[in-house]
Amino acid sequence: MQKILFILPYKGITQVLQSALSCFSGFEADLWPDYENPVSGAAFLSKSLEEYRLIVAQGDAYNDLKRTCNKPVVEMPVSDYDILAAAKLAHGYMGKSILMLPSDLSKRAENILNLAGLNVGTSSLGKEDDVCKTAEKLHSEGYSLIITTPEESRICNECGITNIMLTTSYQTLTQCLGTVQSMLESLNKAENKLTLLEHYVHITETIHVVFSKDGKPVETFNCAANSCLVQMAQNMIPTLLQEKEISKLKMVDKQPYLFKGILSEIDGQPFLFFEIKHSLENTKTHIPGIMIKNTSNLSKDFFNIFYDDLCNLPFRQKVKAYSNANDPVVIIGESGTGKSRLADYIYDNSEYRNNLLYVVDCKQLDKYGINYMFRNTTSPLYSTHVTLYFKELNLTNKKYIDELVDFLQQSACLRNNKVIFSITCKIAESLDNRLCEMLVSRLGSFPLYLVPLRERIKDIPNLATLYLNEMNKELGQNIVGFEPEAMSYLQGFDWYDNVKQFKRVLKQLFVLTQGLYVTTKDTISILHDETIGNKKAKYERDSEKMHTLQELTFEAVQKAMLANGMNQTKAAKQLGISRTTLWRILK
Fold first, then answer.
1. I need a labelling partner for 355 at 20 to 30 A (CA). Which of 4, 20, 64, 368 fits?
2. Is the bond preceding 433 in cis, omega lying within 30 degrees of 0?
3. Residues forming beta bridges with residue 249, ordered by sequence position
4. pLDDT category, 182, cuts 50, 70, 90?
5. Which of 162, 49, 151 is nearest to 105 (CA)?
6. SS3 state at 500
7. Keywords for this entry (predicted)?
């Protein structure tokens, strides 16, 4: 079997490519994720390419390899169909959109769009042009959505610029594979297969280190042999030799890592195998409800998947200003509006983004965790230059809320750290909410209000287009929009769980869609199921409130009885009810 190497321009193409490959025989393909490890000339060529008969690449990777590599290189093309599909997807966006493409693609795209009658502009990108500056210039000219190639899309994402990535369709890949098969027919050498371990290292970010019994590194994967992580694992060798298997949590350069080691023999010779990966758990905080995050494991999709940049630029600017300030922030909004994702965004834009983010989930925090928070010197409350996010503080007992506010007022925690709170409630109710008032007035927190989706109907087409693009990239499909009536149903629905529910519904519709457009029929079906679920949830919430009212009533009667020496007449008089009613409640 002859082997070929595919340089993948983006993650979502993997599944489509694998599907197309299943229709071809006579060769075997390897996939190189250029979206994680960009090809850069000599650095890439240091990898042995002798086993490959042919390489398939796109964009700069194709041009670099064609110039420097002694192997045949085939271009993974962008077809006219691919350009039209991206432009059609952008057509559903309410703002101005433009194709920002390399010069060789730009002219062809302009001719195609003119022929198709699509009102989408084009901008030519030279080899020496700065992608970020060019995109920002287009943004200043009124273009709020950029359509560009995978390489430029990555740069736009890093710069926070809204974009749609120009993807390669199944049909285009099939044509490309036909070209590959034709070229391979003239080549006659077989190639060596990759080992299972090489394949595993290729698809995982986990670090693997193998030591001999005397403690010398035999092999390292995803890590340099002289790194501090390897040295940390080396220090654990005496323990591993004694216990045969270990699992340890260690802080390395202020980052938590999980070390798993096992002692095993190969042909009678002992070897020590270590698996090392990032951990969300700190050795000092085995506490339910407390999680540790950093910039590598954040949810970074608040803008634009939750709030469209086109309509909410002032809000985004306010969030960035609040993130850079030393003052605490309180995020207020209903369930599903993206409070935790906004907290991640604030952390990622604050001066402490290179240090840890402690997420305190007040719903999960038990009595032991609360005691740890306030009375243990290893608590994040006593840390410096970190970010603390108190998620759904309204779910904590009032006593502990008062204690937390007093602590923050009297300690240096607010001065030395970035503190974020979130409260789940309706914006109108927050005006009379004691907790919101206390955080704003006593602690000087800056409030950020997340408007429910039902009050942002005009945002729904843009949010749907952007999220659809994300799923196209992730799953390698080419859905270009919604039937007009389907979008009307989405805009008319009462999103009781807001954007969280909206994203779930869109993903269900994405899975159901067989053609280019999400259908009205599927939309009605899914929204009908959501309506049934909403009625059931509402009934359960109402039942819970009734139960809570009964408990409060009985508690009030108990207190009155105790206060009046168990005298029912006096207790009834104090409560303002008849003795018969009191007796009925007690019974």
1. 368
2. no
3. 258
4. confident
5. 151
6. helix
7. ATP-binding, Nucleotide-binding, Transcription, Transcription regulation
Rounded distance between C-alpha atoms, residue 145 and residue 311, angstroms: 12
> Which single residue is written with the structure tokens 């077989």?
190
Cα separation, 80 vs 263, whole angstroms: 56
Architecture of the CATH domain 80-167: 3-Layer(aba) Sandwich (3.40)
Whether domain 456-587 has CATH 1.10.8.60: yes
Q: Determine the Cα–Cα distance for residues 224 and 227; give it in Å rounded to an integer.
A: 5
Pair 121, 143: CB distance under 8 Å? yes
Q: Nearest to residue 76, comparing CAs of 130, 164, 150, 156?
A: 150
pLDDT in tens, 334-358: 999 999 999 999 999 998 887 888 8
Tokens of 454: 């039902």
DSSP assignment string, 288-346: TTEEEE-GGG----HHHHTS-TTT-HHHHHHHHHHHHSSS-EEEEE-TTS-HHHHHHHH
Whole-number pLDDT of residue 519: 94
Q: pTM value?
A: 0.59
Q: Which CATH superfamily is domain 290-451 in?
A: P-loop containing nucleotide triphosphate hydrolases (3.40.50.300)
End-to-end CA distance of the chain: 83
Q: State the architecture of 204-278 in CATH terms.
A: 2-Layer Sandwich (3.30)
β-strand partners of 278:
257
Angstrom distance (rounded) from CA 385 to CA 114: 55
How far apart CA 82 and CA 170 sit, in angstroms, is 10
Q: Which fold has domain 2-77+171-184?
A: Rossmann fold (3.40.50)
The sign one gets for the Cα dihedral 373, 376, 377, 379 is negative
Residue 457 DSSP class: G
- Mean pLDDT is highest, among 83-87, 340-344, 532-536, for 340-344
Taking the C-alpha atoms of residue 324 and residue 240, their distance in angstroms, rounded to an integer, is: 45
Q: Where are the domains of the chain?
A: 2-77+171-184, 80-167, 204-278, 290-451, 456-587
Distance separating alpha carbons of residues 380 and 395, to the nearest angstrom: 20
pLDDT, one tens digit per residue, over 546-585 is: 455 676 777 777 777 767 767 888 888 888 888 888 878 8
Tell me the torsion sign for CA atoms 484, 489, 463, 19: negative
Q: How many CB atoms lie within 10 A of CB 197?
A: 12
DSSP one-letter string for 377-425: TTSGGG-SS-EEEEETGGGS-HHHHHHHHHHHHHSSHHHHSEEEEEEES
Closest by Cα among 208, 118, 33 to 110: 118
For 358-394, write each residue's pLDDT tens digit. Answer: 899 998 887 778 887 887 766 788 888 889 999 999 9
DSSP 28-66: EEEEEETTTS---THHHHTS--TT-SEEEE-HHHHHHHH
